[in-house]
Task: inverse folding
């Protein structure tokens, strides 16, 4: 593999999202290419910084009291009323919607973290 082939795969390599065959080819290339090795180091550093900023941001995030009150009210209402049986189709659809919402939230958090890092001249 050459740099042109390897570079698009480096982020996935750092995140552990490639198969063993690609990993072997990339690692072989990295033994011969200082440029791609340096890019891997930069990607790992950026990943650690983003993770650190997201953790710091998440640790300092406090939901408003009104959210807690709404949640408790909803839980109380659900306990008081008999629940409807959940069909398999409804459950799968709900899980898919929940998954998409979580992924959207993660994406938004990563964009915010990137802007914070750029604003602080970290990236």
Result:
């Amino acid at each position: 593999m050459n740099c042109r082939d390897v570079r698009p795969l480096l982020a996935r390599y750092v995140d552990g999202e490639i198969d063993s065959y690609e990993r072997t080819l990339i690692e072989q290339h990295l033994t011969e290419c200082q440029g791609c090795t340096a890019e891997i180091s930069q990607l790992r550093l950026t990943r650690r910084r983003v993770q650190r900023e997201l953790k710091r941001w998440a640790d300092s995030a406090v939901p408003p009291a009104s959210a807690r009150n709404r949640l408790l009210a909803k839980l109380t209402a659900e306990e008081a009323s008999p629940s409807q049986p959940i069909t398999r189709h409804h459950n799968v659809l709900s899980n898919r919607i929940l998954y998409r919402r979580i992924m959207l939230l993660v994406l938004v958090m990563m964009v915010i973290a990137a802007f914070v890092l750029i604003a602080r001249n970290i990236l």
Notes: The two ends are 28 Å apart (CA to CA).
